[in-house]
Amino acid sequence: MTGIETPLTIIIADFAQSDSIVDCLKNLNSWSPRKILISNDPNVKNRLKDDFLHNLIFHKSHNIYQLWEQGIAASKTKWNLLITSNEIVTGHLKNSIDSQIKTQHKTDKLFQIKKKVVFLKKVLKYPLELPRELPSFLIFIQQKGDFILKVKTHKQTQLLQGELIQFSSPTIEEGIKEVFCLAEAEADKLFLLSEPPKLSILSIKTCFKFVYAFFSGLILKKGFKEGYEGIIYSAMNCMIPPLTLFRYFEKYHRSGKKIESKLNTIKNILVIKVRGAGDLILSTPFLRNLKELLPHTKIHVLATENSVPLLDNNPHIQSILKIGHDCSNKAIKKIIPMLNKLNIDLAINLESASRTSRLLKKIPSKIKIDRSYYFRDKNTDALIGFTNTYRSVIEREFDILRAIGLKPVDKCTEIFLAEKEIQGAKDFLASSGFSLNKKIVIVAPSSSLEIRDWGIGNYALLCKNLTAADDIQIIINAAPKEVPNIEKIKNIAPKTRLFSGSFRELLALINESDLLIGSDSGPTQFSMALNVPTITMNGPSVSSFYRDPDLFQSPHYTFNKDVPCRDLLHTQCFSNMNPTTQRPICNQMICLDFSVDEVTQKAREIILMNNKT
Description:
Layout: E1 8-14, H1 20-28, E2 34-39, E3 56-58, H2 64-74, E4 79-84, E5 87-89, H3 91-100, E6 109-119, E7 122-123, E8 137-140, E9 158-167, H4 172-192, H5 199-220, H6 228-254, H7 257-260, E10 268-273, H8 277-282, H9 284-293, E11 298-304, E12 319-323, H10 329-341, E13 346-349, H11 354-362, E14 367-370, H12 393-403, H13 419-431, E15 439-444, H14 456-466, E16 472-477, H15 483-492, E17 497-499, H16 503-511, E18 515-519, H17 522-529, E19 534-537, H18 543-546, E20 557-559, H19 596-609
């Protein structure tokens, strides 16, 4: 048939990550039908000659069935030969196909093809082939527009003369890779069912399939007669059912895909963040993206009672509830009736500690996600997981959204102030004698943990240096219980002013300032969210964890020392506890070894750089 175009298209599904495709195409070079290659390998071009690239289709699927469907859609002929890239078409089979395609049929017709299998580099007497939904075949399609590729009963189809030579896995390692690909495809098929099976029923069926697959390969397919190769084949064959179950659970249950399929039915979402004030601010990008990506839902937040005011005026939140930091049984018992009234569909715990996980367990929600920064996630419908020690809190919380099929974008933290609050801060500054012609610096020296504390003495000298010239006015922020500890600063730097007010008053005051200097604590997160230049003295924490590198850039600055004892889990810091307070202590504090002079210099640089107009 040389020189005459055959009314046939050869559709080759390339799934084997090897060079077998080169031999497959070379075998077909002298045969005139058009060839279409569909591959799931993005680097397949490197294995092909340039003259074949125009017949290449890339499709991201591990399912041979789906690869063939793409080829049929691109085919322009009624006759199509569907093979895989590790198969060779023998001369006898080519002649048989050439004879067959001369006949015309009024309906779709499928023709079986015999195979000779080469497995573990050995030619087998019996065709021990790993199970596929459809083996290679020749097909006649009368009307392609109405055609659907589906499983047919091969016993009822005609068998062609000749055979395919299939070069199956040459090593056990390659065979295991193929088994994983087949299990992946089977897991995808389970998820696409209109009614996916229950895991309990699927597990029982898998046990039976496991046993059947082994003995059918060994006995029914006569694998025992092939010796070593037959035993290995049977072992690989029986691995597919359990791996399908495990991958299905991992990919569609454990990873969040099952929740993704139900997003349209979710109406009320509860977000739990029972941590410090700064931690709650770091969750504002999560709340905003959640509302913007699921605008039909109502977002409810449960936070520490002292931190709740930080979310006032937030337009993305429907309601805010509060609870004590310890989440005592009494507090949980009190809050549950309130949560029952909200009809929560999805509850997300952003911090999987024992206390909050205990709370989440009692919330009557259809779907629950229990997320941890670096502790284990408990009793969750989607495991977000712990994969990288240096990513920020914001990115880790965004991973929850990504797991359920959402794509967050804007990472900026935010605080919403009312005009009345801003005017109140201006009135306070005016009544306290602050000049609008001088810079206002807020110093927040306190920290919730001693190991994060730069030291009152250092802050006192810093304030003295900054007020030495008459161009800077300093406000020292302190909670009422912290006021006695601040007296040392007043003694060394008498020009400073003390402020001890509510969170909302502090936020408004920060909004009117030119710079905030503080420890790794809530106020430095407040000023970041308000876009006020910030200097942070970072202690034992991994700096990028609480300060996302994409956000914490000039004019903000972090003093941070790389020290060998620092890690995300604070293993060294929490190895020495104060027996009275049960809080970590450190006798060296090398991570906070910053001189007062270098902090003073950096503060003046930032002030000069960011003159307010």
